Amino acid sequence: MRLTSVNMTTPLFTALSFLAMLALGSCLAILPEEQPYVERAGIQYSARPYNSLLTVPNGEQFGNWTWPEMCPDKFFAVGFMLRVESEQYGLDDTALNGIRLICAKDEDRSFLYTIESHTGFFGDWSDPQYCPRGVLTSFQLRVEPHQGLFGDDTAANNIRFRCSSNPTLTGAGLDYGEYSLWSQDCGDGGICGIETKMEEYQYGLDDSSLNDVRFHCCAKLQQ
User: Which of 43, 96, 99, 203 gives the lowest tally of CB atoms within 10 Å of its CB?
Assistant: First the structure.
């Protein structure tokens, strides 16, 4: 039997090679990106020492301060998510219900922890936002002031964070109220903990949910 050799320069072979490369490229394009491992830290690291608290002066009056949650040792907040109830169009609005911090160690974003303290019951969690480099170091809180006896209070509506690499990240909250001045800065470290002031569920009366927040600063030099 005579074997017929294939001429590698024929138009047919060139076309088949091109189609094979297209098929390989499309397969590679749909491969999912590697997702980081994310673990809820909760209160298990709440004994971590910290240097200072970041606060702003415009937090609202309703509710009580709840428990702190801390990133693990040597981890710092590098991003965040918000739980926001959308505009209710004449019904009871609560706006910002929760803030979830995302903690990482150095610049490694493959293994993450989350902390959030107490959150409200309304709304959905946004997609995460991250500092391109570095950690969260200060914040502004957007708060609607008390609306009076018969008004609809929303209290905290949105938040902004500043990263140590300088970018500012603005959350996907609502627009009621005004932003505070910037809090103090964490200096040589970054945000490592969170504590929220929450109004509990009002059982059909006016809910405001998240009223205020404060963040813990840890120094990297002490790790």
Answer: 203
**Could you write out the DSSP letters of every residue in 139-189?**
EEEEEPPP--TTS----EEEEEEEETTS-EEE-S----SEE-------TTE
Strands 178-179 and 96-105, sheet pairing: unpaired
Q: How is 204-215 classified by DSSP, letter by letter? A: TS----EEEEEE
Q: Label residue 92 exposed, middle or buried (CB < 10 Å: 0-12, 13-18, 19+).
A: middle
Q: Three-state DSSP class for 23?
A: helix
Give the residue-averaged pLDDT of 105-121: 95
- Strand pairing class (156-163; 124-125): unpaired
Q: How far is CA 89 from the centre of its chain?
A: 26
Instruction: Read off the pLDDT of residues 72-90 as tens digits, 9 standing for 90 and up.
Output: 999 999 999 999 988 878 7
Asked if 118 and 73 count as a contact pair (C-beta separation under 8 A), the reply is: no
